[in-house]
Amino acid sequence: MVETSSSVVAREAEHFGKMAGDWWDPDGSSAMLHKLNPVRLAYVRDRVDQHWQKDERDLKPLAGKRALDVGCGAGLLCEPLARLGAEVTGIDAAGELITTARAHAAASGLAIDYRAVPVERLDGDYDLVTAMEVIEHVAEPAVFLRSLAARLALGGLLILSTPNRTAWSKLLTITLAEGVGRIPRGTHDYDSFIPPERMQTLVAAAGLRCEDIEGIAFTPARGLHLSEDLRLNYLVAAVQG
Fold first, then answer.
1. For the segment 57-71, what is each residue's pLDDT rounded down to a tens digit?
2. Does the keyword NAD apply (predicted)?
3. 4 within some domain
4. Which one of 5, 11, 104, 152 is most buried, counting C-beta atoms within 10 A?
């Protein structure tokens, strides 16, 4: 696959597009994303503060920065990024999700540039690039990561998240969560999960340097939370190598 090809898998875009109607319902088909989002956002905020040496009390740490959320869905991460001061662009392969995202942002009084386009066909550069729970759904992870790197401005920060390829992740994410309907059936393919070791290799091959890896763990007492335990899910922060 050449660099200008799209890593979008049509059946994946169709699957997620069907979730557009209740995307913003915390008890709907995207309920697990609603639970994940505060954890991911806390990590993003911490890495932003460290990368740009911001005061953690600053309400607008991304003021003056351009942010790109790849695989944005209907805007769960885009909207808080905009509230943190960023000029936000959100892209997704599912047009239905982009329509929902635009409507929700407008109702929330937020100006976010939403586009139904794959990252490989996007121009421009961004200070912050995020791709949460996306890389396990693309056709070519290596091509996808190179495309993310290509959109990163000089001195920029890339953050992504993905399930680990472990028995624990398969049990919680597919057997249990999809089994009881917390995640729509067919959302995940275990064979597409990427272990951290391979992810670091892919990041390096894209010309980036991995700065940090942190887990998202689950316990009945705490729910989903940031952790040194990488078995379930993990976040990666990378910069230009």
1. 999 999 999 999 999
2. no
3. no
4. 152
